[in-house]
Amino acid sequence: MLGREFARHRPPFSAGLAALAALVVTLLFLPAPAEAYIGPGAGFALVSSFLVVFTTIIIAVLSLLIWPFRMTWRFLRRKPRAKPWVKRVIIVGFDGQDPKLTDKFMKKGLLPNMKKLAEAGCYSKIGTTYPAISPVAWSSFATGTNPARHNIFDFLDRDKRSYLPLLSSTHIGSVEKSLKIGRYRIPLHKPEVRLLRKSKPFWSILGEHQIWSTVLRVPITFPPDKFYGAQLSAMCVPDLLGTQGTFLLYTTRPAEKKFKEGGLRFQLEKNGTRMETTLQGPENMFLEGSPPLEVPLVIDIDRAKKTTKLSVDGETVELEPMKFSDWIPLSFKAAPGIKVSGICRMMVTEMDDHFSLYVTPINIDPEKPAMPISHPSYYSTYLAKQIGHFCTLGLAEDTWALNEGVTDDGTFLTQTYDIDRERQDMFFSALDRLRRGSLVCVFDATDRIQHMFWHYLEKDHPANKGANIDNAKHKKAIEEIYKHNDVLVGKVMEGLREDDALIVLSDHGFSSFQRGVNLNAWLQKEGLLTLKEGATGESEWLQDVDWSRTKAYSLGLSGMFLNMKGREAQGIVEPGEEEKAVKNTIIAKLGGIKDDGRGVVGIREVFDTKVIYEGPYSENAPDLVIGYNDGYRISWDCATGMVAGPVFEDNVKAWSGDHCVDPRLVPGVFFSNYKIDKDDPTLMDIAPSVLKMFGIEPPKHMEGTPLYSEEAFGKGGSA
Fold first, then answer.
1. Can you tell me the mean pLDDT for 446-469?
2. Which of 361, 497, 506, 708 has the most CB within a 10 Å radius?
3. C-alpha dihedral over 228, 233, 234, 240, to 10 degrees?
4. pLDDT computed for residue 713 by the predictor
């Protein structure tokens, strides 16, 4: 039924053949918590069944046989609902669009379409979540609940046994049993891959009422939801290495130091005009020792013509310096008859005295997906056939390569706009084909560009390192992405039909990130965290901490945990009075703390999650959420579990803007072509509002309230 309904909204597609293609290659992966900040997985395990084709045919035949019964069952289970107010709800999300900048650019006349939308309907700030970070905020948007009811509190969680970081949104099991045949290991079962977000998103509830939804790149949808509609996963979709984005750099330059963030360096020897190496892919879990899979890479340099010819996996690509290749398909062979597909882009970043080749993270190939990145499983294949290869990585734009100085501003912007263009192609294709139901798409470029270019807004930002930014080529990058968004909004407005509701919103705003705060260093200073004898605190992932003498520790971007007895493996803080005393000490001393280097408050308030959260999953929350002041955020060292270093330090990285601050400082934006009845909307109000517009009463688990009244739709108001 799902495949048939999908075909009604899209050009015809064979569900049986699609299922066959989707099951031929299965790619699975194992977690490596020690590398979770860079990426939650250490690699993939490859699995294939000798009977997969036979099994797929049987499933396809059975699906056809039981289709009439499924249709009857769906009809009998159809739930009653009131008359809908609209035929279509279109939601455009601009991750991180800030109301202060939006107001500024609208006043300057740079956002005419957003201004028109505001005048026809409404525009206001929208309250974000505690903390104000994307996985938490978009989960509240989807479910209409606070974090304690949807179970997403940060990008990271901690393993209570090892204190090592884990990805907060996805549980990744392991393969415990395998059969050894010669040098091969054959896994005997699949590891579990499960979405940890709880509560039903509004598109699943719409689906229960036979209302179709297309959901494109909304964060925390990996693995994808199964519902009456189509979905392409976003944030936390790994690359083919199992990480959240590991770029590769092939260079003749000697390595000065290891990349701190998200990159692997491969040394090339100066060998005239020809160099031979390999492109490394995922670990081959079929072989003892799990060596990395490889494909040959041959580099031929013509310095006279300033071109480089790359031969990789049967493909030949000719590149000029500082120009991206198209997506290059890769096929890694793991065992006889078993291979896994990926795609990447390449750029020659220098070819004078030294040669350097930048390779983007190897994305899962959407045409031959090795992981469940869409629903139905063949939806990504369909999109690839329709628009060509596209980026599938959850954190698609390579901020780490720019932070490490491997790429430059122009390269990053090219990559970001290319990804945005891919997403617009998907979005407008879906909009053209949607007759009734909802369409939701999140565009990330605003967030990513503000992270990396905020320092151009502030001459005194440490990331400028005294440089004269007045003549910087990309100093208006943030203004340009807002104007770019406005053009997109105008195009959407042109395509609106009668009885369409349009919502344009962001999950949070933005602020400066000039100074980092090492919370673990502060805890050590206060006697609440103790290092092992002889340890320096320079090891990552809290490896130097003496847990028998530590009462609190920080992990993730916004949370702090108590080392609770009976909860953490080596916990020492007794529940009850001691727990309250430790919390109160931290709240009193850390809240309002001043940065001695600048004489201003670095942390405005520390929030007790037992006070700000209510719900069945509150026990999974950090014990405290840190409300940083504008200009401050957790330091890079603290984010990777280091204790050593000053409590406050300058942030000199290109990643110069952020939103991990007191949520009251960074509300998002909300536009609609219909007026709302609430002066202070929040992200939790969106899900019940969408349901109400389709005549469905929001379920009791949703805490948000509908923003619209029926009268508003009776009077029209479409922009």
1. 94
2. 506
3. 180
4. 87
647 and 526 both lie in a single domain? yes
Residue that is last in its domain, among 633, 655, 677 = 655
- Strands, DSSP E only, in 360-452? 363-364, 374-375, 437-443
| pLDDT tens by residue, 560-607 | 999 999 999 999 999 999 999 999 999 999 999 999 999 999 999 999
List, in order, residues 6 or more apart from 609 with CB less than 8 Å away: 148, 618, 621, 622, 623, 624, 625
pTM of the model: 0.89
Looking at the structure, do residues 309 and 427 belong to the same domain, yes or no? no
Instruction: Report the share of the chain in percent with pLDDT over 90.
Output: 76
Which value, to the nearest 10 degrees, does the dihedral of the CA atoms of residues 420, 424, 427, 431 take? 160
CA distance 297 to 562: 49
Specify whether 502 is located in the same domain as 521.
Answer: no
Q: Based on the domain organization, do 649 and 604 belong to the same domain?
A: yes
Q: How far apart, in whole angstroms, are the C-alpha atoms of residue 378 and residue 3?
A: 9
The DSSP H or E segment spanning 556 is none
In a domain, 527, yes or no: yes
Number of compact structural domains in the chain: 3
Q: What is the CATH classification number for the domain harbouring 432?
A: 3.40.720.10
3-state secondary structure 467-524: CCHHHCCCCCHHHHHHHHHHHHHHHHHHCCCCCEEEEEECCCCCEEEEEEECHHHHHH
Q: Which helix (H) or strand (E) holds 103?
A: helix 99-107
Distance between CA atoms of residues 268 and 266, nearest Å: 6
pLDDT for the residue 74: 59
Judge whether residue 45 has pLDDT over 80: no
Identity at 370, one-letter amino acid code: A
What is the rounded distance in angstroms from the CA atom of residue 146 to the CA atom of residue 610?
A: 13
Task: Pull the structure tokens for residue 605.
Answer: 């308030």
Asked if the model's pLDDT at residue 17 lies above 80, the reply is: no
Give long-range contacts, CB 8 A cutoff, 24+ apart: 1-9. Answer: 1/67, 1/70, 1/71, 1/74, 2/228, 2/376, 3/376, 5/212, 5/228, 6/230, 6/376, 6/379, 9/212, 9/214, 9/230, 9/430, 9/433, 9/434, 9/435
Q: Residue 348: which domain range?
A: 247-363
Q: Is 165 buried (19+), middle (13-18) or exposed (0-12) by CB count in 10 A?
A: buried
Please provide the size of the chain in residues.
719
